[in-house]
Amino acid sequence: CKGTTKDSLLLGVASKEVKERENLAKGSVDADVSVDEITTLAFPSVSTADFQFNNETASDIIVEKVEEFVNKLENARLVLVDLSHGSKILSLVRTKAEKRNIDSKKFFTFVGNITQLYSQGGLRCNVIANAANWRLKPGGGGVNAAIFTAAGLALETATKERANSLLPGHAVVVPLPSDSPLYTREGVSHVIHVLGPNMNPQRPNSLNNDYNKGCSILREAYTSLFTGFLSILR
Ligand code: AR6
Fold first, then answer.
1. What is the DSSP letter of 35?
2. Ligand 1 mean position to 145 CA, how many Å?
3. Which pLDDT score, from 0 to 100, does residue 27 have?
């Protein structure tokens, strides 16, 4: 898997680990679990693009929350995804996760479109997170537009069955119907919508630079997201 290799090189991990991680992505790992049994959550950096949350602060919160949940995962793993190799948030998180010695088999970063991780990047992620809007509606841009477009009507219908709106800091787990193209092409069985804090004054309900509230909402958002993921595992 190209994306994983490049990312791993950036991380500067030992070549044995790089091989292991490539094998994980390809499904030929030597360990006693096959890759199809490794449940993986791919998630974007919530609130740091359209919602304009500060990258440095968001990266601290991501690493803090990953560290809190990573040992509860058993065989599962978490992957932070962004679109480009120049992603500031990926590089901040990589550096901080390395400093905290977070197990790089259980948590790593990956460059790719969250709706094409398997078909384009060879990385199987059966659960993906969406940085949603409060109405849980398609469109708007960013990850939300990409996921709703790729998943088709099936996701809209399944989402409505679970919730009509979301409060900041909350998440909702939506099982994806097996006729959704995201399910058939990418192997995604669940989408978890999560709503982060909005720091963008051009969007409704902006926190107007109140980072006290913003940080506590972003922490709650990752707690809800990872708790939702754990609920799928059990
Ligand atoms: N694949 C992977 N990562 C992506 C993709 C993609 N297809 N698209 C964007 N990112 P954002 P927010 C990264 O703006 O800040 C929407 O309009 C992006 O580079 O999607 O929480 C909703 O409707 C960034 O790192 O989410 C909401 O109203 C991260 O995903 C609002 O935006 C989050 O960027 C939510 O804004």
1. G
2. 8
3. 37
CA of 98 to the centre of ligand 1 (A): 24
What per-residue confidence (pLDDT) applies to 36?
56
pLDDT of residue 37: 62
- Tell me the CA–centroid distance for residue 8 and ligand 1, in Å: 23
Residue 200: phi and psi, rounded to 5, are: -90, 110
Which ipTM did the prediction report? Answer: 0.99
| Six token digits for residue 202 | 């051009």
* Cβ 17 vs Cβ 29: under 8 Å: no
Identify the residue whose tokens are 């996760």.
Answer: 97
Ligand 1 — pocket residues by CB below 6 A? 44-51, 81-83, 89, 113-115, 131, 133, 140-144, 146, 196
Give pLDDT, residue 183. Answer: 97
CA distance 124 to 40: 7
Residue ranges, the chain, pLDDT below 50: 1-33
Count of domains in the chain? 1
Give the domain CATH number at 104.
Answer: 3.40.50
Q: How many CA atoms within 13 Å lie on the side-chain side of 79? A: 29
Q: Kindly state whether residue 4 falls inside one of the protein's structural domains.
A: no
Residue 13 lies in a domain: no
